[in-house]
Amino acid sequence: MLLFAVLMLFGPDRLPGFVRSLAKGIRTVKNAQADLTQQMLSEEPTAVKDLKDAVEDIKSEIEGVVPRKK
Hints:
Helix content is 91%, strand content 0%. It is built from 1 helix and no strands.
């Protein structure tokens, strides 16, 4: 049904070019997503360490002001 609608909208002459453009766009998005994922994974250890350090600093400051209940 969808294929028929696309065929009627673009016509048989322009359909191959449309499909090529669509495939190229999908490939571009997948490559960009893969690059972003790789970049995030390579930076993750540093970011996690920085976050853990910040949490520990805040925890130390809170423990210095508010006594810990046991």
